[in-house]
Amino acid sequence: MLSNCKDFDINGFTCGGSLINNRYVLTAAHCVGDDIVSVRLGEHNVEKDEDCEGDNTIGSQYCADPVVNVEVEERIVHTSFDSDDKNAYNDIALLRLKKEVNYTRFIQPICLPQLTKLRKKDFEGKKAVVAGWGRTEKKWESDVKLKVALPIRSNENCSKIYQQHEINIQSSQICAGGEKGQDSCQGDSGGPLMYSDPSEQPNWVCIGIVSFGTEALNKECGTEGIPGVYTRVTEYLQWILDNIRP
Description:
Elements: E1 2-3, E2 13-15, E3 18-19, E4 24-27, E5 38-41, E6 52-53, E7 62-63, E8 68-77, E9 93-97, H1 116-119, E10 127-132, E11 146-153, H2 155-163, E12 173-177, E13 192-197, E14 201-212, E15 227-232, H3 237-242
Antiparallel strand pairs: 1-2, 1-5, 3-4, 4-9, 5-8, 6-7, 8-9, 10-11, 10-13, 11-12, 12-15, 13-14, 14-15
């Protein structure tokens, strides 16, 4: 979670992101301004100080490790991103944290799709998972981190939908969703589109970054037939590697 408050007041939460190593968070460029000053890691329910499941009265309660708030040291936005361009090309950014993050059971980095077979894969027809605290049908923001599995759509199909509104989908983008009521939404921006196939790659990999969707067409999130648009991470692997340091 990205915030414009150093002490991470939850009201300052603006976007999601993905921890990719102990010093960097991957997110969307449109999420990153000078006001993004901290990130929160290991969160689940923003309304609770401690995330627990089970019944403590019978000794079966299971609690997550405490959340970790870390200040941002540097914001690295792709130099070709244009916030005034509705196509949202190059909607990718990195946040360098002020200190290294200690991994826990609940704070782990997600893998990047660096294997050759993943770099060459278009993922069309596969299912991928998007997660975040964004808008739901009942609330502007969800208290609990939600996830949904979405089908990856062909760029050709996606382009036909968005071209009606003079938005052109490029190979550097990936589309997912289009099923009624199943979608990322406002507040999920910058979060990961995740893929895993035990027969190919047992770990979850980040193949997309939430960029934009139905709101660009003045439609509600989860409108049937309109997939969301994500930054395709495989197209930016070299950019990511070029912009991280120890």
